[in-house]
């Protein structure tokens, strides 16, 4: 059987079938159209070893003597006795190809197991893979794991993943790849604040703009594992799987299970090349939300063409203190600033005066809103803004009419409800999880949210999920798997019923950020922390996979409510700019020069959002680690090249050096000349004087400069001495 060779955007995937199983020969740089006879790759057999070559299979198997983690683990239950067919010997029975896609079927008729693997190498070089296992036997088969993995090249010697906590999500950590298995386990019942958005293996010292990188992402919002498995013969695979609870998936005869999709990208240009592959995939989805096609010359995409509106979320302005008069004042102030979407957060529904009651009772509180939400919605929409509403459909408080009427809808480990003596999990933010696996509970939640949307002019939902799914069971059995699928179905059915609806995924901030949830939502809330310094790192690493138009970033109050740090408007604004921009602030209290500065910046966002939300993300490798330089470069057209760019220079702390020196600006068209200008803050802005500590600015700062992309990337420009926790916004225009 001829080998399979998929090629796209500088990437090749080669799979051989000579061993009888699907063996991944190469995933990495494009190999060109023709391949040699792959028999030349036959490996030597070392002494004191299996008397055969051990393939690095698409599904690594113990039956082939793979010494690492097998892809498929499970056993058959025959006549009530478990443990049969614990080891499978899958062999290729069918291969179908169509363009850049393939379907490979491997079966073991003796064990009664068949696995169908679907692979698609997308136009931007992102590989999408999933497996479907089917029980072809005559008795139940308990599936313990079905992992999706890929081998990396021998020169991948470093591993990068991400970790974090509430208000400090997605921070990088690195280590050398050594023999053994490095596993990141997520048992949160959701993706998790500490989840690694990406698992990346790379050559020594790989960075933003240099080095070879192989990276994977598991598109799943429930329990999961991501891992790197390096075995004694020098081979390493990376990948992931859903983490299944005890007997969560028991396949009856002819029953099937499909893994979450694993997305994988290769780059020979560092981490920015990985981001380009993911961004291309996102932006070519037919339902992707993007700026208008005319906003950036030459920007090609397949999305809806809707610009990302400026948002005001009122949470940090009013918290639970909902008052129509105050909220209308906020709407007035927001409209004056240029806000385009007004979002009412937690506290509008029955009994919700604090976070200990009301969840599950998705009715507008008649005491607080005697005329419903209509007066506020009318006030908002009459001022030219969309209206958005906060909901948390997957959660329930014990102090709610719904919980009192349906105690059996509350998730717990016992087969009986807590009213009948069953044990409940510990509370988290005083709340529990509603059992969406229960058809009646699912239908109730759907009907209530559907009614809210039908009865009110709501364009947008901020959909929260504020706790882990601990001891999560349905009818006494583990059910995170089914709960995750039921939650997905809730999103899908509401979107189907309300085609124009946009949904933001929030989960205690950034605890549910993955491509599974992003297939159903229009943006994610990266973190509950609006502190601009913390957000610089959170947004930078979230943006490794998720493009800025899908990452909510807001200007919070002058003093952060989560860290008590105080920052100027300019630093907060420049930080929020490189995302889906908004405000989370009592804007009634913004006056005078500060208000004018904020207005000007909102205008800058509207002017540049087309570029930010369609261009190539560029993250410089800056030698001084107190400084960060990142930006977006327009794609342009083949004839015109890259015609515009926007960069932020950010100082996170004091530097050992007296001055930054010349800093290179990468990513521009090498053969074009650019006009460079510092556009925010400028001398007319309220906090300009706070931005610098320097007796004299660099020569170009006041009047701007002109230079080629080649000069800017090789020589750079001397940068001003920024004060710690300040930033400068730079504009580049081709001339």
Report on this model:
The protein has 735 residues and is an alpha+beta fold. Among the domains are: 55-283, Distorted Sandwich (Beta-galactosidase, Chain A, domain 5); 347-361 and 393-457 and 474-506, no CATH class; 617-734, Sandwich (Immunoglobulin-like). It is built from twelve helices and 41 strands. The strands form nine sheets. Strands 6, 7, 8, 9, 12, 13, 15, 16, 20 and 21 form a ten-stranded antiparallel beta sheet that branches. An eight-stranded parallel β-barrel has the order 22-23-24-27-30-31-32-33. The chain has a six-stranded antiparallel beta sheet with strand order 34-35-36-41-38-39. A hairpin with a 5-residue loop joins strand 17 (224-230) and strand 18 (236-242). It is globular, with a radius of gyration of 27 Å. Residues 292-299 have low confidence and may be disordered.
Report a brief summary of the structure.
The chain is an alpha+beta fold and 735 residues long.
What descriptors fit this protein?
Beta-galactosidase, Chain A, domain 5; Immunoglobulin-like; 41 strands; 8-stranded parallel barrel; 735 residues; 12 helices; alpha+beta
Q: What is the general shape?
A: globular
Structural class by SSE content: alpha+beta
| Helix coverage percent | 10-25%
Give the number of helices.
12
First and last CA, distance: 55 Å
- Reading off the top of the CATH hierarchy, the class of the domain at 55-283 is best stated as Mainly Beta
Q: CATH superfamily of the domain at 55-283, called what? A: alpha-galactosidase from lactobacil brevis
Flag low-confidence runs: 292-299
Rg, nearest Å: 27 Å
Biggest sheet architecture: 10 strands, antiparallel
